[in-house]
Amino acid sequence: MQTALDLTVMLPQSAYDYGERSSGEAHGVVLTRPHVVNLILDLAGYTADRDLASLSLLEPACGHGAFLVPAAERLIQSARRHDRDLRDIESAIRSYDVARAHVDRSRLAVAGALARLGLPRGDAERLSEAWIAHGDFLLTSQGRRFDAVVGNPPYIRIEQLSPELQDEYRHRYRSLYDRADLYVAFIERGLDLLAPGGVLSFICADRWTLNRYGAPLRRMLSRWFRVQCYIDLHSASPFESDVVAYPSIFAVSHGKTGSVPVATLRTASPEECEAASSALRGAPAPCPGVTLSEYPSWFEGDDPWVLSSPEHLEALRSLEARFAPIEAVGGTRVGIGVATGNDRIYIVGGDVDIERDRLVPLVMRDDIEEGRIRDAGRFVINTFGDDGKVVNLEEYPRLSGYLRAHEAEIRKRYIAQKSAASWFRTIDRVYPALVSTRKLLIPDIAGSNEVVYEEGRFHPHHNLYVITSEGWDLEALGGLLSSRVALFFVWSYAVKMRGGYLRFQAQYLRRIRLPPPDSVAEDLRSELRSSFRERDFERLDELALRAYGIDALPGFSFVDTRK
Questions:
Q1: pLDDT, tens digit (0-9, with 9 covering 90-100), for 212-264
Q2: 190-222: per-residue pLDDT in tens?
Q3: Which run of H or E residues covers position 184?
Q4: SS3 475
Q5: Per-position DSSP letters for 282-342, written without gaps between them
Q6: Which member of 42, 68, 143, 530 has the greatest number of CB atoms within 10 A?
Q7: Average pLDDT in the 86-104 region?
């Protein structure tokens, strides 16, 4: 077996075909473009000018080898520069994947790249097998720490996993809070395995930086780690396939965060990635698509990472200091409609053969258009009694017959497996009293704040959020919530999605600040009501500025989709 590396073999320009595109649906695989991978390796300090044989690299989910191939190429380049042999690099890289097919594909790719660099085929295969293991990274014990942790962790919602695996993951990882995506646990585990002086550099969806489920991870980073840099990719295309959520790149090491450079890439082209790499490592290279800002201080504790202009942040903090959160004003409450677990079964027409007192009129997102609600004749089956307990099916023979006709499918739901005795219940409780309550409805996903007044005829579906208030005139409140000022709060904190859409989830709606109802003059409330009814958004924006006592919203611009 040859152990010395042939210094005469040069690295080819394109050592590996990164393979076919992936939809990301099977195992959370979303392939990262090669130049983006190179940027991430640069930020982790895994560069060929260093003696990489003395360092260790971890890639926790190898997928098709997008990170491993260029990492292996850099390792070989470095080994030749520093006169290293095969024995020195046998344990330099470690990677995992739960899918055997991915492991095999990555091993083949890495071995092929090493062979093209001049290593004997046997040595190339031996190294690739030593570096890449079949296993669940999140459940695998490690006997060492790593100097570079890099990758694009899986995009998988935790509720898509088996209940047993969910429980095991949640037991091990305190960052798996609420409905967290699995990549959050990969970040936590990667940080746990980071050696002193090491760097974790990942690309993943940026939802954890803003939303509720990311709070424990943000708190962990604030307490124990230093954010070295952050790259915003909202308008860029860093993957080989389209994804709905916006991604970002971040690099983290042990220590306390001070000032943080934040780069924004317009397209994440090879030229932009190279320029960003140079700029973030202290050697600025002007590039039209790269914007670099310096945040003199970072966010404390579990505060959301609101990355915007200084003017925007100053205006936001000023409003938050002057006004109370929406649920602390006028007895206002934010809620969400009912989730059933299987809408095809639990949402029915009026002609269904079920006892009438088990049917509750329902409004869904599709029933709302241009501020008006269309009665589509839908009902949701109410499986609960007034006491909050599931009903006795023996008392409702027609309901029982309907549910038992669909029993096999109903029992497949997680909620049914969790509570076998109440297998037929909907995920959420239906509240018939909510039907007659006057309320405001806000769709979950929209290009802007689409607020609709509902006079008291329907129960909302789970893709609609509900606002009720004891102290506010609902139409005047609807006018405020339809304005740019309300959108300013939501836009600052909400997850941004492809196509310019926002998530108007309860956690973001609760970030809205409101003036007390009695601080808004009656004539102003009257104008808010009438402008809300007329859907005069330009006028509502003017009235809202008056209600908040401000002249403008500095640093805030968005494409107005209200109509």
A1: 999 999 999 999 999 999 999 987 766 555 554 678 999 999 999 999 999 99
A2: 999 999 999 999 999 899 999 999 999 999 999
A3: helix 183-192
A4: helix
A5: T-----TTEEEEEESS---TT-------HHHHHHHHHHHHHSEEGGGSTTEEEEE-B--S-
A6: 68
A7: 96
Q: If you average pLDDT over every residue of the chain, what do you get?
A: 90
For the entire predicted model, the pTM comes to: 0.81
Long-range contacts of 9-17 (CB under 8 A, 24+ apart): 9/117, 9/118, 11/73, 11/76, 11/77, 11/117, 12/116, 12/117, 15/69, 15/70, 15/73, 15/113, 15/116, 15/117, 16/65, 16/69, 16/70, 16/109, 16/112, 16/113
Give the phi and the psi of residue 58 in degrees, each rounded to 5.
-120, 130
Q: Which two tokens stand for residue 321?
A: 């200091």
* Three-state SS at 231: strand
Residues 420, 26: Cα–Cα separation, whole Å = 29
Dihedral sign for Cα 447, 313, 494, 236, please: positive
Residue with tokens 């970072």: 298
Nearest to 72 by CA among 108, 28, 122: 108
How far apart, in whole angstroms, are the C-alpha atoms of residue 27 and residue 97? 10
Q: Are 43 and 261 in contact (CB under 8 A)?
A: no
Task: Answer whether residue 15 shows pLDDT above 80.
Answer: no
Structure tokens belonging to residue 265 = 């890439």
H or E element in which residue 558 lies: none
Round to whole Å and give the CA distance between 260 and 445: 31
Tell me which residue has tokens 């579906």. 461
d(CA 541, CA 523): 16
Which tokens is 287 given?
């590039």
Picking from 340, 464, 346, the residue whose alpha carbon sits closest to that of residue 414 is 340
Q: How far apart are CA 101 and CA 62, in angstroms?
A: 11
Is the pLDDT reported for residue 62 higher than 70? yes
Do the strands 332-336 and 146-151 form a parallel or antiparallel pair, or are they unpaired?
unpaired
Whether the per-residue pLDDT at 375 is higher than 70: the answer is yes
Structure tokens at 299: 């966010």
Percent of the chain with pLDDT over 90: 79
The SS3 call for residue 51 is coil
CA 383 to chain centre: 32
What average pLDDT does the segment 340-345 reach?
A: 96
pLDDT-derived band at 530, boundaries 50, 70, 90: very high
Q: Which uninterrupted H or E stretch holds 254?
A: strand 247-254
The candidate with the shortest Cα–Cα distance to 39, out of 255, 222, 247, is 247
- Report DSSP letters for 393-458, one per residue: GGG-HHHHHHHHHTHHHHTTSHHHHH-GGGTT--SSPP-GGGTTS-EEEEESEESS---EEE-S--
- Taking alpha carbons only, the member of 17, 16, 20 closest to residue 31 is 20
Q: Is the pLDDT of residue 377 over 70?
A: yes
* CB hemisphere CA count around 324 (13 angstroms): 11
Q: How many residues does the chain have?
A: 563
Cβ neighbours for 325, distance < 8 A, ≥ 6 positions apart = 510, 511, 512, 513, 514
Our CA dihedral for 220, 303, 508, 477, rounded to 10 degrees, sits at 160
pLDDT greater than 70 at residue 5: no
> What's the CA gap between 269 and 220, in Å, rounded?
32
Instruction: Tell me if 457 sits within 8 A of 375, measured CB to CB.
Output: yes
Residue 400 corresponds to which tokens in the numbers above? 């029982």
> Residue 313's Cα: distance from chain center in Å?
22
The conformation of residue 551, written as its DSSP 8-state character, comes to: S
